[in-house]
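Students often ask what a 'structure token' actually looks like in practice. Rather than answer in the abstract, let us consider NADH-quinone oxidoreductase subunit I, a protein of 528 residues. Its sequence is given first.
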Amino acid sequence: MGPARLTAGLDHCRRLDLPAHRTLHGVVEPRELSELISHANDVDMRGRGGAAFPFARKLRAVADATGTGESVVLVNGAEGEPASSKDAMLLTRNPHLVLDGAVLAAEALGAREVVIATAGGEVAEASVAAAVAERRAANVSGGAESRVPIRVVGIKESFISGEGGALVKAVNGEEGIPPGRKKRAATSGVDGLPTLLSNTETYAQFALLAEYGPERYAEIGTSKEPGTILLTVSGGAAQGAVIEAPTGTYLADVLALTEAEIGDGVLIGGYHGAWLSAEVVQTAVLSREGMKQAGATLGAGIIVPLGESTCALGEAARVSAYLAAESAGQCGPCRLGLPDIARAMYALVEGTGSVDAVRRCVRGVERRGACFHPDGTAKFVLSALDAFETEIAQHLEHGSCGRPIRGVLPMPEREADPEYRLEVDWSRCQGHGLCAHLLPEFVDLDDYGFPSFRNVPGYLAKEARRAVDMCPALALRLAQTTGNGPTPAGSPLRLVKDGVLKRAGASMPRLTRVSTGPNVSRVGGTAG
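Now compare that with the structural description of the same chain:
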């Protein structure tokens, strides 16, 4: 919609190789850091990964932390949001624009290397690796491409894989989960070095800013938020797509372009976002300021219209279950609170729960997590309670709204997690109850202190083994249950008979994979 910038040329070819990219955008000349910071300030460039942090401040923070030492530029292409496709689209179809922005920043900072982190997309990873190889070949044949080394790293995909701390840990070869304590990448990131970390679209926008200059860059969009944005539209849209549009575009116009059914509402900002009612959608403007006025946040540009044929409350419950399954499992709010929220949401769907019960569960996780995941989940659930008030009343009165849960909200299809069960040797068990103290969510004690067990998800296998090892009577052992095969995308939450949340569609434990095959390039010396 409007002038094509990030998507220029993609109407003529499926992927822009290096010659096509250079024909469109030319060769980006190195710039002084002060000039780049000034340009970013002039247009108030913000990160496009969701947090909207000022990019100029990131550049300055890394420069200050680096001093005369080394730094790293890290491109976050590991979007874990099932409803977002914009980063994968850029890396697959227009990788050189992303690389231009990253290399431009690396040269200005004197960075040691550029690292491109991708997750869950072999095609995107292969496209970026091919782009790196194209630049190397161009230099070998006498071209003038940058010689900053570029490394492509594939990591394990999950909802939290794109969180900054989790991404840095994954690139460093550790488990890709958020650190318990906040650590700024600008001071200590990849290999402990000051790291400029931003997402794929941000670097592509940065390359365009350098190409156009602030005045031309600001010719479209709003005065406060110039330029274009990438939007992923899915769900109830007849024509799901990644759309480039000027900031200030009406949300209703984007939905009309994709022939979307709004239904009971539109989700803005992804699964840590908020719901807008059909009435608000008609006047909502797509910009940070416009979304704030509408009661939402633009986030990473995710737009999911619900449509008219599915149960809105059931869809929200599916997402709450998915978010509970996608936690790192390293703090109480994630291990206990998020499954409680999912169960309370499904009780609402069945007409047996209450809104107050859901709100109590939400209060138990807000501002208590080791990362933002519990707060983001709480925001999504509270927004759903407000947006679907009428439908909730129908479920509580009749047990249903009369519509099935069609799985309209995007959900990844993954192999089901292994599960474990605790088994007890009753000739040894003396009813100490220590196992229930160590695993309270999976062990119940009867009136005599003897245990009964629920299945333990794979991401808590370590804690279950600890309970086995610490049993004073040596009465416990841990056995793996038979897997259930792949979880279909869009399937509702599966509950075991005793009501314990099963991790539907997750892949844990999260073992970081750093690719080392032909799709990965670390290029130095003669190429970028």
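One point worth highlighting: Confidence is low (pLDDT under 50) at residues 484-528. Ask yourself how you might have guessed this from the sequence alone, and why that guess would often be unreliable.
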